[in-house]
Write a structure and sequence with these properties.
It is a single chain. The protein is mostly helical and 314 residues long. It has two domains: 154 residues, no CATH class; 140 residues. Helices cover 66% and strands 0% of the residues. The chain contains eight helices and no strands. Helix 5 runs antiparallel to helix 8. The longest helix has 28 residues.
């Protein structure tokens, strides 16, 4: 039973206008946070794939004399500075979430801490982004920048689930009982998804899309690591197929069924994109699609694992 059913508690006059239950605004801010984190990954990919990584050649300013991009910097400056601006929009969403949760910071500590984590990540990402520029797009630093964004997609997915009462201690959604293997299986799928993403960063660091013509590469064998990267991806596909089999065999309905089917769909999409880009010279547009699908995969795997952990066991 959610604490949202409790009678409203007494609050200070200064914050009396803030909600004392998880309302539609809180839920919408959670969804907006997830969408924003996903878009940030796409815009970060655009920076790399258009060779705009040094569109703003300094940090924290865009140039030595300007906080923003200048007309002389052209499209590369616009793309890089636009990506920087998006972090401020995400910070605003995170701040708004914390404000709206203020009266619930004790009762819904789960939501408050997740929102706080998302907000705390903004300066951390800014610092990593700055180091990326100052190290002239070192591939390992660029990769860390991407991985932090992926971790934030995971946090935002958990925030959405908790805000809607789908999972966690304050779950209000009715979840069908699952076989005992479902929880460990979906946790393994989420873990293999994360491993695939990490190896994908290594592959990207060895590939041709450096974010700038003169940016260094990690000097690893791109083809070898592309094949290594595929191994956990195969395991994710196998786990998703097994989960679908369990759902069909057990005639399981509800959110978990939807989550598993969504996971399988995103996994298949990611595999198709991956194979197509591999055999067609790694075109930039497909790389961008692969990055978006990676974010969707991490969100889908997190969602399925979170639902499995919150579901009763048969």
């Amino acid at each position: 039973m959610s604490t949202d059913s409790r009678p409203p508690r007494t609050v200070s006059r200064n914050v009396a206008w803030l909600p004392v239950t998880v309302n539609k605004t809180v839920q919408r801010l959670a969804v907006l946070s997830l969408i924003g984190q996903t878009i940030l990954i796409v815009t970060g990919g655009a920076v790399r794939l258009t060779a705009s990584g040094l569109g703003c050649p300094t940090w924290p300013r865009c140039t030595d004399s300007s906080l923003v991009n200048t007309p002389e910097m052209g499209i590369h400056g616009i793309i890089e500075f636009g990506n920087r601006l998006l972090t401020f929009a995400l910070a605003a969403v995170a701040v708004a979430m914390l404000v709206y949760l203020w009266n619930l910071r004790k009762e819904r500590r789960d939501l408050f801490l997740l929102a706080l984590g998302l907000l705390a990540s903004i300066p951390a990402q800014a610092v990593i982004g700055g180091i990326t520029v100052l190290t002239q797009l070192n591939p390992w630093v660029v990769g860390l920048h991407f991985l932090v964004s992926m971790a934030l997609v995971v946090l935002a997915t958990l925030l959405v689930n908790r805000a809607y009462g789908r999972t966690g201690k304050f779950r209000v959604a009715e979840l069908a009982p699952l076989p005992g293997i479902a929880g460990p299986l979906m946790s393994a799928v989420a873990l293999f998804s994360a491993v695939a993403v990490c190896l994908g960063v290594v592959v990207t660091g060895a590939g041709p899309h450096a974010g700038d013509a003169d940016a260094p590469r990690n000097d690893l064998d791109w083809d070898l690591f592309a094949h290594i990267h595929a191994v956990p991806a195969y395991l994710v596909a196998a786990g998703a197929l097994l989960a679908v089999y369990l759902v069909i065999r057990g005639r399981i309905a509800g959110p978990f069924r939807t989550a598993v089917l969504m996971l399988l769909g995103v996994t298949v999409l990611q595999a198709v994109i991956g194979f197509t880009q591999y055999y067609n010279g790694i075109p930039a547009l497909l790389v961008a699609a692969h990055m978006l699908a990676a974010a969707l995969l991490m969100s889908a795997a997190t969602n399925a694992a979170d639902l499995a952990r919150s579901s009763p066991v048969e």
